Amino acid sequence: MNISSLVNSTVNWFDDSVFIRGILNNPTYVALLLTAIIIIVISSLFTLERKKLIKGSIYIFIATIMILFLHYRIVARSASKISSRENVRDIFASIEQSQSITPPSAIPVIPAEVQSI
pTM (2 decimals)? Predict the structure, then answer.
């Protein structure tokens, strides 16, 4: 079994789960999850006083949430730019397509009813 198929199947399983997808879509929940993981690792490596551990976890949470909100903002802005570029490209493509349908030398024809007025 290769690693890429294992990773892809795991990601698909997480993506299919509504609960996990809801948690991972929210940057606040992701920051809390990362803070908990970091605190568990720090707690297992070092023996800290409870007060220092709480203070450190607050700092870690604030730093993590700032980074995540910045990341989500940058990703949203780049997706918006890509989307707007694609929309502009579609508009110009439709204009070019309509110009190719109508020959530029076409003479407008006035109906006979309009000419008699």
Answer: 0.53
Answer positive or negative: Cα dihedral of 59, 62, 67, 70. Answer: negative
User: Dihedral of the CA atoms 32, 38, 44, 49 (nearest 10)?
Assistant: -70
Residue 42 CA: distances (Å) to CA of 2, 28, 56, 70, 115: 32, 21, 10, 25, 89
User: What SS3 class is residue 3?
Assistant: helix
Per-residue pLDDT of 9-25, as tens digits, reads 887 887 788 887 777 77
Q: How far is CA 60 from the centre of its chain?
A: 24
What single-letter DSSP state applies at residue 64? Answer: H
